[in-house]
Amino acid sequence: NIDSHPLMKQISDWEKESIVKIQQKARELRQELIQKHTIHLGKLSKTLQDLSDQLKLGREHDSFVEVDIGNWKKSLNGLKENLALNSILRINQDCGTPLVQNVSVNSIENDEVFDRVFDNSARIEENGLAVIHTNNVGYTDVRGRNEYSTGCHRICLSIQQSSDTWLFLGIKAKSRPLQEISYSSKSTYGWSSNNYSWLNGQAKANQLSARIEMKTNDTIILIFDCDNRKISMTNERTAVKFDLVVDLNDCPFPWQLHVILHEANSHVRILS
Fold first, then answer.
1. What is the pLDDT, as a whole number, of residue 167?
2. Cis bond before residue 254 (omega within 30° of 0)
3. Among 56, 79, 220, 224, which residue's beta carbon has the most beta carbons within 10 A?
4. InterPro entries, per this entry (predicted)?
5. C-alpha dihedral sign at 247, 250, 252, 256
6. Domain 114-270 is of which CATH architecture?
7. Cα separation of 200 and 196, whole Å?
8. If DSSP codes are grouped into helix, strand and coil, which group holds residue 121?
9. Domain limits of the chain?
10. Lowest mean pLDDT: which of 91-100, 163-172, 218-227?
11. Could you say which DSSP state residue 181 is in?
12. pLDDT digit string (tens) for 196-251?
């Protein structure tokens, strides 16, 4: 029954939270309108009193002149116009941050496979599901087949073999060529198992207490959120999640899965 699906509950929760936010904002706006209306009437009352005092003073001293009468008529007409509240107040619709966060339903199914390697220091096996380094140490660039430009995508990777000294997982722009030292490319974004994150080809030491780990038998979940220009990595064993915001000037769409093997016999497999 689709009505009992957990995602249906998430949608219902979002609906309730959105209604509460809208009702709260409406109450705040009504209160603000009442306050501004009160202030507005107070100002009009003072202006009317000042005008009345001027008329009284002119009558007592018999000092009316045509200019005074003209000015008083203008003042009275202005007061008449300002009595209408909508002549001075407007409802402003902010085009910036929305009151209610927009949500959508995205498919995160993935048919990713490894498609290209930089050189023969790595080989692709199992119809593209696995990539294996030779028994020599050296960097090599590996790319996935799929292209990511919209939506949110999930890739599940199994670390079949790694000494946890240097392995990179992340993204790279399709337009950038395969290369040996691909971690230094400006379009490289992701994480390496020596506890560094990489943004536009620059290494940044991990500041969290939890390490970035990619050990043998670990399962790593990569999320490519194109709509929000973010990527994330979660190690299921440690349950630690890391996030990066991607600068499209450095790493333009479409993105591709980017793996850099370095350790001898390191082996990564795509699970889903």
1. 98
2. yes
3. 224
4. B30.2/SPRY_sf, ConA-like_dom_sf
5. negative
6. Sandwich (2.60)
7. 13
8. coil
9. 2-87, 114-270
10. 91-100
11. T
12. 999 999 999 999 999 999 999 999 999 999 999 999 999 999 999 999 999 999 99
